[in-house]
Amino acid sequence: MSAPLLATSTRIRRTPFSQRVDAAEPKSTTVYNHTPLVAVYRSLEEDYHHLKRAVQIWDVSCERQVELRGPDAARLIQMTTPRDLSAMGDDQCYYVPAVDAQGGLLNDPVAVRLAADRFWVSLADTDLLLYYKGLADALKLDVAVFEPDVSPLAIQGPKADDLAARIWGDEVRSLKFFRHMRADVGGTPMVLARSGWSKQGGFELYLDGAHNGPAIWDQLMEAGRDLDVHAGCPNLIERIEGGLLSFGGDIKIGETPYEAGLQRFMKSVSPTCLAAEALEKKSNPTKQIRPLSISGDAVPAVTEEWSLSLNGESVGEVRAAAWSPDFNTNVAIAMVGRDAWDAGTEVSVTTPSGTRTAKVEPGFWI
Amino acid sequence: MSAPLLATSTRIRRTPFSQRVDAAEPKSTTVYNHTPLVAVYRSLEEDYHHLKRAVQIWDVSCERQVELRGPDAARLIQMTTPRDLSAMGDDQCYYVPAVDAQGGLLNDPVAVRLAADRFWVSLADTDLLLYYKGLADALKLDVAVFEPDVSPLAIQGPKADDLAARIWGDEVRSLKFFRHMRADVGGTPMVLARSGWSKQGGFELYLDGAHNGPAIWDQLMEAGRDLDVHAGCPNLIERIEGGLLSFGGDIKIGETPYEAGLQRFMKSVSPTCLAAEALEKKSNPTKQIRPLSISGDAVPAVTEEWSLSLNGESVGEVRAAAWSPDFNTNVAIAMVGRDAWDAGTEVSVTTPSGTRTAKVEPGFWI
């Protein structure tokens, strides 16, 4: 039984970089925010080693943007996130877990503040645009809520600074994590942020205007030839090692930020957040995200959650797992109940290749 | 350059029928509402002929449900659609184009009324749940908005009545279009509606409780063996012939119901709809959905919109097209500007296999 091909249609949106991505011949692709996102180019392990050694260009246009613009923009975004945004600067990006009034997660986007009355919200895989619109329509807020023609392109890997410096100068090297600056593309100043969905360092360019896509892709590929630049994508192994959570996969809609292990962003919950009260009552979760190592040789792909048990009782589920060549074990992300979540706890996990033992780790691997 | 495989993960949800779908070995699959949806089983044309001749079982769990339950349920759904729901009965389904306060489409779901204070909304491919939540949270409405464990299974084709009657008795034959009744599955009465995304007739079973999935699939397959029942899926050719619009593909988010050609649902716009005023000003669109025939042999797959021109001026775009064996022409769905939308107008269309002539048709084919 072989996996089906990805069927395409105009419902699955092409991106400014799609032609270049096609030419790089990905092996497998998923759909994220109605947009293709490559999962594997050469092989999961080859992509992994390359990402940790060189530099990759990722078409992450699927991180669709919502623009909030107008006098009520800051109020609207703050209504949807517990994280206090009052000290956010015009050159900052914030990870802003987005919740409904009951405190259930709807998305875990990155907000880019462009001005006091203008934000881009870089989405994980749900149409958060619709929640913003619902609030704005109901309360008749003075804010425009729309999707701008902006498509992120990530430059990731230990040689990302070298590559970016060749295009935009050495100034990029001093850009701090989750800060952004302006970088010229085709004569237009665009947002370049130090961010990205890997732990290997790098940038995300918020490409403004789809027509500028192929030229900047080609320019990066040309400039990085001796750095072994290659088309890449978020890598399952590397992102589990680094504890980068996939919304909808590792965290489910309606789970709380506490369950998702995001308490470090909850230190001072903004009273403007609609969920402020509800979250206070949910700050002692009974399950929480944990890193897990799974014994034995390489596990198969997780296409459906694998249940965890302790002394015959169900205590949670594995939501992502992969063999890590660098750590010589299967690394995994699991939602684990309180009875089993302490580091060092050994549990059983039911995989398609049989029952294995697994251990709750004290932290992610990198 | 071959198409990539569909990459899976727990972010792409398994359905109650996924094991059965896998066993039927689909050739290609897309992702719809974070859920797999098969596009082709045997071949597009073989599936097409079979759908028009026999009966198919479709896993359309991707039509995710939103349940609206509580005293404000009817008010909430009416706020989001111009279609007047005041006369809707407890055994009815309504196609309810859903719009924001500016009149832009957010989804085009089917609403199933279960009681005066309880609806299921069967979604096209956007997270409309979030818009309902936004309105309900902002206005503190007395309504629960959530996704129930309900997964539609479609029975489609000219022999669908025969097959359904073997399971649920001859009563199903007299069920009228867009009406629903109760049908027993594993001892539980479930909603069975006369509906489905084909013009070949049939039903949609709203499977309540995922654990009931494999048994009813097997029961239908067993009972329909001599009717040549087969696993199936919405068929691109058949649905274009029938003018069944794909939200996100043929209609884009933010376009109006008038642009989408849905004026027949707009005869008496409910004043409760937040967009009532905005829509009044948009009732004379400058572009509208049209059926189009395209000359020449079979066109390639439309993965990106194809532009239309008339006397060198851009007049719209083709959003879906396929070769129709039964009508011996390429059938297409296009968004066409006012200058070219009259039936009989000949336009040029730029396809990956060259420029062709196309003609605006007076209506869809079936």
Task: Report what the structure shows.
2 copies of one chain form a homodimer. Chain A is α+β, with helices and mostly antiparallel strands. Helix content of chain A is 18%, strand content 33%. Chain A has helices at 18-23, 44-53, 73-79, 128-139, 160-168, 213-223, 236-241, 276-280; strands spanning 5-6, 28-32, 35-40, 56-59, 65-69, 93-95, 98-99, 105-107, 110-115, 118-122, 144-146, 150-156, 180-185, 188-193, 202-208, 230-232, 287-294, 306-310, 313-324, 329-337, 346-351, 354-360. Chain A has a 6-stranded mixed beta sheet with strand order 13-14-15-12-4-16, sandwiched between helices. In chain A, strands 17-20-19-18-21-22 form a 6-stranded antiparallel beta barrel. In chain A, strand 18 and strand 19 (313-324) form a beta hairpin. The model of chain A has no long low-confidence stretch (mean pLDDT 97). At the A-B interface, strand 1, helix 1, strand 2, strand 3 and helix 4 of A face strand 1, helix 1, strand 2, strand 3 and helix 4 of B. Strand 1 of chain A pairs parallel with strand 2 (28-32) of chain B.
Give a quick account of the main beta sheet of chain A: strands, pairing sense, barrel closure: 6 strands, mixed
Strand order of the largest sheet of chain A: 13-14-15-12-4-16
Shape designation of chain A: globular
Low-confidence stretches of chain A: none
Number of strands of chain A: 22
Distance between the ends of chain A? 36 Å
**What value does the average pLDDT of chain A take?**
97
Oligomer: homodimer
Q: Report the portion of residues of chain A in β strands.
A: 25-35%
* SSE series of chain A: EHEEHEEHEEEEEHEEHEEEHEHHEEEEEE
| Rg of chain A (CA only) | 21 Å
